[in-house]
């Protein structure tokens, strides 16, 4: 197949198939988020309010953001993202205004999903150091969440690496009262994620993804994505001497020789460290 460059501004839609090792997590998200967004009538019939807020928690790079995007895409919901640290950085009053605007946009485009990444930075626990800004933001967020009507078809998904650091007021019924763990993948999960990130790669016959999944102990999704990219770059380095870069386009017979081999992954494994290990090394 001919290589086609992504068109400018094209929406790259993530689906559940782009998430590896999260089988039962996806089931939970589908039940708690997708089902009420797609079929609010089921909840109306039963006389219960659909969930308004879901807290995703798990270590960095395990796919929380990707999961939120996938559920929005698969539910055909309008997706709005708020980056915690980004919003607290803005000027006095600006952050609250921005939050209100986002909730309004969600309402106008329902069904909607509002995704708040790193919620702990906006809403840290009261006993943690918290400035005036955070206090006001939490108050605004609480008001906005309480204002979501059951029929409004909006779900707020928040993500954090530190669930214990999130203000309890946000975790009361009717707010973020559902929790879903997005865990570190096991070997089978790593194998699935490797499959996803090497999907578009020409792999050499000697590449054994099962073996690689075993070697990538402690790797989370983001690490595996980095590993796959690094292996591709290794392949390029290995092939570069054989490529005449002066040519306007590299001929197909040369391109066809370019593949990612076992040795490229072995080299990449030496460069890419699992992110959890990096953290330990920084602390040490
Ligand atoms: P953070 O807490 O650091 O924001 P996160 O949990 O939100 O991390 P993502 O931003 O979703 O993680 O993941 C980063 C990248 O890592 C994704 O774009 C994807 O390439 C890869 N990735 C992470 N988890 C998975 C997974 N389960 N399956 C496939 N790819 C994954």
UniProtKB/TrEMBL annotation:
Position of the signal peptide: none
Every AAA+ ATPase domain range: 50-186
Similarity field: Belongs to the AAA ATPase family. CDC48 subfamily.
Protein name as annotated: Cell division protein FtsH
Naturally occurring in which organism (per UniProt): Pacificimonas flava
Lineage: Bacteria, Pseudomonadati, Pseudomonadota, Alphaproteobacteria, Sphingomonadales
First-to-last residue of the parent protein present: 193 to 476 of 766
């Amino acid at each position: 197949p001919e290589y086609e460059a992504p068109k400018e501004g094209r929406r790259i839609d993530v689906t559940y198939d782009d998430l590896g090792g999260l089988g039962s997590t996806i089931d939970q998200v589908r039940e708690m988020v997708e089902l009420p967004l797609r079929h609010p009538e089921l909840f109306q019939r039963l006389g219960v309010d659909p969930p308004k807020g879901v807290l995703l928690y798990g270590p960095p790079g395990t796919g929380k953001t990707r999961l939120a995007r996938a559920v929005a895409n698969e539910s055909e919901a309008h997706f709005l993202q708020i980056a915690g640290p980004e919003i607290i950085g803005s000027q006095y009053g600006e952050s609250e205004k921005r939050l209100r605007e986002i909730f309004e946009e969600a309402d106008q485009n329902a069904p909607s999903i509002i995704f708040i990444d790193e919620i702990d930075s906006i809403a840290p626990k009261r006993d943690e150091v918290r400035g005036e800004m955070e206090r006001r933001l939490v108050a605004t967020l609480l008001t906005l969440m309480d204002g979501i009507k059951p029929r409004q078809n909006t779900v707020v998904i928040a993500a954090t690496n530190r669930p214990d650091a999130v203000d309890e007021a946000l975790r009361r019924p009717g707010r973020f009262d559902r929790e879903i763990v997005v865990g570190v993948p096991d070997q089978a999960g790593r194998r699935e994620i490797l499959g996803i990130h090497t999907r578009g790669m020409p792999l050499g016959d000697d590449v054994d993804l099962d073996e690689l999944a075993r070697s990538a102990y402690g790797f989370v999704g983001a690490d595996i994505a980095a590993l796959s990219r690094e292996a591709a770059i290794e392949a390029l380095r290995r092939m570069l001497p054989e490529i005449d870069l002066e040519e306007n386009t590299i001929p197909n017979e040369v391109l066809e020789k370019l593949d990612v081999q076992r040795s490229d992954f072995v080299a990449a494994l030496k460069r890419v460290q699992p992110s959890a290990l990096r953290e330990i090394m920084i602390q040490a």
